[in-house]
Design brief:
alpha+beta, Outer membrane efflux proteins (OEP), 4-stranded antiparallel beta sheet, about 15% strand
Length: about 450
Amino acid sequence: MKVLRLLPLSAAIAMALAGTARAESLLELYEAARAQDASWQAARAQYDANIARAAQARAGILPQAGLSAGVTRSHYENDTPPPAAVDRSFTTQQATVNASQPLWRPANWATYRQGQRQAELAEFQLVAASQDLIIRVSQAYFDVLAAQDTLTFVRAQKTAVAEQLAAAKRNFEVGTSTITDTREAQARYDLVGAQEIAAENDLRVKRLALDTLVGRSNTQPNPVAVPLNVPPPQPADPEAWVAVGEATSPAVLQARTAVEIAELETRKAEAGHQPTVDLTASYGLVRNVGGNATSALETRPKSGNVGVALNLPLFAGFATQNRIRETLSLEERARADLEATRRNVAQQVRTAYFGVVSGQSQVRALEAAEASSQSSVEANRLGYQVGVRINIDVLNAESQLFQTKRDLAQARYNVLLGHLRLRQANGTLQPEDLARLSTLLGS
C-alpha cells in the first residue's frame, strides 16, 4: 500500500499556496462530513452492529450457566383408618444451578470462526464507506470550484463582449462600421447574460450540495494553485496498481471473506454427522417446610453431580446430507462472486489509471489551446481595428478563449479527482491523501 504513493500528492508540499482567510481545506470539510453525513453515520452504526453480532458467535464455545428456583404448596390427605391416616399441608422450596461447558462441538467452533470473519467483513465494509465519503466530498468540493470558475469566466467574457459592443457602437457612429456589428455584439452580450444567470444558479446549487454534505453553510473551498504541474501516477504501470488492488481493495477483501464464511458454513453442515461432548454440572437444594408426603419433619436435602454428556446423531431424515449439498453450492457461488469482483476491480483500476493519464494529456493540450486562443483574440482585435476582421470574428475568438478556459479548469479538477478515484479503485485511498492534496489546492 505504501509503495503506490501518487507522485503529485507527495510533491504537492512544494507547490502549496496560501488560501484566503475564510477558505476551508478539503481535509477540513471531509472531517466535517464524517460528523454530519447521514450515509457515513449509518455505515458506522452498521459496523458497530456487525461487530456486536460477530461477538455473539463466541457464546457457543463458552460455558453456559443457569439458575432455576420454585416454591410449591401441597396438601396430602390419606383417608386410611387411624393411626395411618394423614391430613397435612406442606411447602417445598427448591433451587438448582446448572452449568455446562462444550468439549467437542464442531458446529459451534465453525460458528465462532465465522464470527471472526464477519468482524473482518464489517471492517472492510467500513473502509469502503470511508473511501466513498472521501470521493463524495472531493466531488462536491471540485464541483463548487468548477462552478466558481465558470461564473468567473462568464463574467469576464461578458466584460469583454461589453467592450466590443461599445467599440461597435462608436465605430457605427463615426461611420467606420455597419449596424450589423452592433447588433451582433448586442446579441452576443445578451447570450452571455443568460449564461451568467445559469452559472450563478449552478454555483448556488453546487454550494448547497457541499453545505448539505458537510453540515455547514457558505463553505468556501480553497482554489487550486496554478500553474498546476501534476506528474503521472507512480508506478507508471496499470498492472502494478491492479496487483495492489488484489490485496487491498475492500471489494475483493469482502468477497474473499465471504468465501471463507461459506466454507465454514459447509463445516457446520458436516458437523451434523458428528457427535457432541459436553461437560455438565448441577447443584440443587430442596427445603421441605412442614414435611412432605411421607414425613412431618422439615428436611433440606442437597444434591450435586458432575458428568460428561455424549450426543451422537444417527438419522435426521436426510436433512444433514441435503444441507451439505446446499452449502457446497453456496460455496461455489461465493467463489464465482470473488472472481467476478476481482475482474471488476481490475477493470476499474485500469480505467481509472488511463483516465488520469488521458486527463493529464488533455490538460496539456488545453493549456496550449488557451495560449493559442489568447493569441487569436489579440490578433482578431488588432485586425478589427485595422479593418481586416469583422466584429463577429472578435466575438467568436473571445467565446472560444473563455470556453477553453472553462474546459481547462474542469480538466484540472478531473485529474485531481482522478488520482483519488484511482486510489479508491485499488483500495489504497486514505484520509491522509486529502491532507497531501490540500497542500496542492493552496491550503
